[in-house]
Structures are given as structure tokens and as C-alpha cells.
Amino acid sequence: MLGSLLFKLVRSSGGVRERLWKLAYETFPRVLPDADWWFMNYGYEPTDAERATYGTLDESLFQWRSRAMYHYLAARAHIEGKEVLEVGCGRGGGLRHVAETMRPASATGLDFAASAVAFCRKNHAGIPVNFVEGNSMDMPFSDESFDAVLNVESCHAYRDQAQFIREVVRVLRPGGQLVLVDVRAQWNWDPLYEWLSEAGLEVRENADITSNVVAAIELDEPTKRALIKKRVPFWLRGLFTEFAGNVGSQLHERLKNGEIQYRRLVAIKPA
Ligand SMILES: C[S@@+](CC[C@H](N)C(=O)[O-])C[C@H]1O[C@@H](n2cnc3c(N)ncnc32)[C@H](O)[C@@H]1O
Prior knowledge:
Blueprint: H1 2-10, H2 14-31, H3 48-54, H4 64-74, E1 83-87, H5 93-101, E2 106-111, H6 114-123, E3 130-133, E4 146-152, H7 161-171, E5 172-184, H8 186-198, E6 202-208, H9 210-231, H10 237-243, H11 250-256, E7 261-268
Parallel strand pairs: 1-2, 1-4, 2-3, 4-5
Antiparallel strand pairs: 5-7, 6-7
Helix pairs in contact: 1-10, 2-6, 4-5
The structure holds S-adenosylmethionine.
S-adenosylmethionine is lined by residues 21, 25, 39-41, 88-91, 94, 111-113, 116, 135-136, 152-154, 157-158.
């Protein structure tokens, strides 16, 4: 009940929503300090064609489908030799996967939650990734300093998403790519396409991956439910079940009935 109410509040709009998201993301690493919990996305079940094109992952790894969300997104940006930025890196596991398996020239993770950045610095020490605290709408980086920007299930929470897109264009080099996955309603996708176009980015791929995410949610349900029971404090379980998008959550229901769509975008800054 409380979980569902809070979930509705963070899905509302404006500065209140931004403050609630920040409070939530600052709180998670404090109440869930588990060093092996590296991901906060709903997971992705790859197709056979993707497995053939981009390779397979070790399915015995903890949260492998959340890792797959990154793998099959970042692979589309052909990361090798590139300077990569992730905006909204959370607990850092996705960028770590990219750094360890895709040979970028450099990898930088940005997040506005100080506790998430502290978690990343502690738990991914020794991995060649630089974790930085900062806001997606005012990034602490010079113009044209990256070849690829990753954004995983994060930008729906930004107060001014048009400004975020302008920032992406500023920090990308000509020819650079934005690769993004997110979940939102169609009425909320339309403005994003407009902001991409206004900022001069060319959309090269726009795929509805809702069915892959629903499949991941359903396949991961027993593991996730057991994990929440074991590791999440009882007073946070209701809220957490909504955030984690378990079977029966509002998120799962709305993905299945088509009210919201999970999409993947690849956009290029013209050379
Ligand atoms: C759902 S989590 C996803 C984390 C990570 N990408 C993953 O897939 O595991 C969203 C992340 O975006 C970050 N975030 C939200 N608003 C942000 C903002 N305005 N600037 C930077 N990071 C932000 C949150 O702190 C959180 O870590």
C-alpha cells in the first residue's frame, strides 16, 4: 500500500518528483549496501539473433539479465577504442561490464546520488572506470569529450529532459552516439523524439523491447522475490517490489497491457 503510493508520487511530475527520486536513490545504497548487487534495471531477455550477433553472457552470474540490458545496448555503439560516458550509472555494474568486456579507451560513470557514486568507488575499485557525482542536466565535462553516451532506465526521472539531451549533444564528439533504454508511456516518448531532433541527433534505431523486458521480469521472478525476502528490510519490501517491477507490480501490469513501453534508441550526432 505504502509502496504503491510512493511509487505513484515518484511517477508524478516536476521538482517534487526529482527530489523524491534523489531521496530514493540516495537511500538505496545505505539500506542495501550488498557489494554484489550491481544493477537497478528490470532486465532484458535477448533474442536468438542478438545472441548470435553480439555473443552470449554467463547466465549463472547474479542479475545476468540486468547485465544483458547493458550488453545488448552498448554492443550497438561498437565501444572498442571509444571514450564512453554513462549517465545515471547507479550501482556501476553495467559500466563495469562494458569496461571489462568491450575494451573502451575510457569509461566514466555519472550519477546524482552521492551514495551511489561512493558505492561504485568502493565496490568497483581497481576496475578502469571513473565514477563522478553530478547531474545529467549540467554535466561536469568539457565539450566534445566522449564518443558514446549510455543511458539505462534513468532519463524518465530527469526534471528537464530536453536539457539532458542538449547536454548529451554538447559532450559528444561529432559522429558520437547516444544509446538509451527507458520505460514510459507513448505520450511521454513523443516529446523525447522531438527533443532529440531539435538538438540535432539523428535516430538510427528505435525499437520497442517491451516483450524482452516482460520476459525478463517473469523469468527472474522467483530469484528476485527470494532475494528481496532475504536482503531487503521488511519495511521497504512493498516499495521495493514496485521499484523492482516484480510480477504483479504496477510496472509489470502496465507493460503487459500496453500503457507503457520499454524502448531502445540509438541516435547519432552528425559528423
Ligand atoms: C533505475 S536506476 C538505473 C541505474 C543503472 N543505470 C542500472 O541500470 O542499474 C536510475 C539511476 O539514475 C540516476 N539518476 C536519476 N536522476 C538523475 C539525474 N538527474 N542526474 C544523474 N543521475 C540521475 C539515479 O540516481 C539512479 O542511479
